[in-house]
Amino acid sequence: MSMMSEFKEFAVKGNVMDLAVGVIIGGAFGKIVDSVVGDLIMPVVGAVFGKLDFSNLFVVLGQIPAGTGATLADLKKAGVPVFAYGNFVTVAVNFAILAFIIFMMVKQINRLKKEAPAAPAPEPAPTPEDVVLLREIRDSLKK
Question: Model's pTM, two decimal places?
Answer without folding.
Answer: 0.51
